[in-house]
Amino acid sequence: MELLDPQLVRAGLVILLGVFGLMIGSFLNVVIWRVPRGESIVSPPSACPSCGHTVRPRDNVPLLSWALLRGRCRDCRAPISIRYPLVEAGTAALFLLVLARFGPSRALPAFLYLAAIGLALTLIDLDVHRLPNALVLPSYPVMAVMLAVASWNPEGASDWFPLLRALMGAVILFGLYGILFVIYPRGMGLGDVKLAGVLGLALGWLGWGSLGVGGFAAFLIGGIFSIVLLATGRVTRKSGIPFGPWMLAGAAIGIGWGEQIWSAYLSLLT
Hints:
By secondary structure, the chain is an all-alpha fold. It is built from 9 helices and no strands. The longest helix has 29 residues, at 6-34.
């Protein structure tokens, strides 16, 4: 007789991870605002940018506080951007998608981390057209350690080939983007090159198909988006278009469906 119903355990995990995602999303709002400005993410406490009053703890509850305050500062009634609750809800949604993809496995923490850092980098790149080293560079050791833990099996023989493949994936994507940066530096930023290595770690750990699909999808999505912007006159050929968001979107496709897409492609060839 099972002590716990597996469905209840899974439902509890979904709730816990959803709440955790909301909390991380609230922290990401601080990261997205302060890191590009070179400010500390731990002090001083969050404050209203209009009146300078420190945000009270009861006004820092994800989603709920924004709704109760009706999107305005308690002290000066200045509007609070709807992006704040959207980031919180979006982080929770991403965490639940990662849970659906990996389940309660040892790989889950690595890809939850990648989802959180990816959302922050996407919005920062859209805001300031930069991928800060303060977020990208620490992701190398963090992802490497987490993927090593995911490869380790304390109950039997560990499979270290995925970790080796992850390192090879990082070298491949970093090298590819590095070559593109050298050939055409106006079309590829150095931050993109650094991010490519992080994404190569995650995609390579999953498989060669994920690496190939995730890497190609970034250029496909970015190219289509750029063509649409050019066709609608929103940008010109000289405009700078951030590529980081499309790298992350391509990686998401590779993580979610890369192996299936790669297998379907190979079956067409044969």
